[in-house]
Amino acid sequence: MKVEIETKKLYYGFPVILVGYKDSKWNYNVTTSSSSYTLGDTITMALSSASNAVKNIEQYKEFTVNVPRQSILNKVEICGFYSGQNKIGMADITYDIGKYVDAPLLDECMLSIECTVHSIIDHNGYTNFIGTIKRRLVCESLIDAESKLIGTEFNPIYFLGDDNQRIYRYFNEESNISGENMGCSSNESICG
Ligand SMILES: Cc1cc2nc3c(=O)[nH]c(=O)nc-3n(C[C@H](O)[C@H](O)[C@H](O)COP(=O)(O)O)c2cc1C
């Protein structure tokens, strides 16, 4: 049985990303977000409209999405708690500039995507950027001999929780190949 809960936010598990952008004050900068998804060559990413990142991405119309792993959780938090500061310096982040966008690709992240802004939608204090993916880069150790992603080696940080508390969670060792599970069944039932 489910019960209704009172909360202003309920995040049900989203990968943490570090958004890189050109900054008019600090040259380049990074902000932590958990609000993104991609479909084909389209990427959607949202941030508080009051953030330094939004001001600059609206101006320069390009950004990068970088996926960190657990080992740099300290940098994830520095970039998520010091609004408007020089977070590349504070978190000692090294980077290259994109091939198609003037924004930083973070060395310590296992995956980076170069994006240009296609459209911007403000809603309830959040700015949603719909972007076009220009280039995808993946750490060599996550690619096989045929340049395909080794999905079982990919370990992002997941962010979830409610008003009361938000936590980071990590994948376990299990995986199933998509499209091969329709004949499977399980006795486990938690809810629904
Ligand atoms: C794990 C994590 C996830 C976050 N996700 C988001 C998010 O999805 N959207 C958002 O607006 N802020 C998010 N934040 C908060 C911003 O990173 C934070 O407000 C930051 O200081 C904004 O910096 P800026 O004003 O310099 O851009 C998150 C912070 C953390 C630590």
UniProtKB/TrEMBL annotation:
Q: Which organism is it from?
A: Gemella bergeri ATCC 700627
Annotated signal peptide? none
Q: What are the alphabetically sorted keywords of the record? A: Flavoprotein
A GO term, aspect molecular function: oxidoreductase activity, acting on the CH-NH group of donors, NAD or NADP as acceptor
Report the residue ranges that make up the Flavin reductase like domain in this protein: 15-141
The cofactors required by this protein are:
FMN
Q: Which PANTHER family match?
A: FLAVOREDOXIN, FLAVOREDOXIN-RELATED-RELATED
The record, for Pfam families, names: Flavin_Reduct
Any idea what this protein is called?
Flavin reductase like domain-containing protein
Family per similarity comment: Belongs to the flavoredoxin family.
Q: Which Gene3D superfamilies match?
A: Electron Transport, Fmn-binding Protein, Chain A
